[in-house]
C-alpha cells in the first residue's frame, strides 16, 4: 500500500521526513522550499487517492504561488504539531 492511499499514513510519512531533515541540519527555509516543491509535484503529477488529497490538490490549483507556499508551510506545521 502506498503512503498516498491513506491521509494519516501520508502525514506520518511527512512527519518522518521532517524529522530526518531537521536531524540532518536543514533549516526552516530549506524545509519550506522542499515542502512547496513536493506540493507542486503532487498537484501536477499524482492523482489524488482520497478526499483529503483531492481537496488539497484543488486548493493548490486555485492558489497563487504565495498561497501555495503558505499551504506547504501549514502542512509542515501540521505534521510538526502531531509529533
TrEMBL record:
Gene3D superfamilies assigned: Protein of unknown function DUF3243 (1.10.760.20)
Annotated InterPro entries: DUF3243, Uncharacterised_YmfJ, YmfJ/YflH_sf
Pfam families in alphabetical order: DUF3243
Name under which the protein is recorded: DUF3243 domain-containing protein
Species: Bacillus taeanensis
Source organism phylogeny: Bacteria, Bacillati, Bacillota, Bacilli, Bacillales
Amino acid at each position: 500500500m502506498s503512503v498516498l492511499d491513506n491521509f494519516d499514513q501520508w502525514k506520518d510519512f511527512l512527519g518522518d521526513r521532517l524529522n530526518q531533515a531537521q536531524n540532518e541540519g536543514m533549516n526552516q527555509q530549506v524545509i519550506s522550499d522542499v515542502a512547496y516543491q513536493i506540493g507542486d509535484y503532487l498537484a501536477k503529477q499524482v492523482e489524488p487517492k482520497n478526499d483529503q488529497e483531492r481537496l488539497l490538490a484543488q486548493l493548490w490549483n486555485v492558489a497563487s504561488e504565495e498561497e501555495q507556499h503558505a499551504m506547504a508551510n501549514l502542512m509542515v506545521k501540521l505534521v510538526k504539531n502531531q509529533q
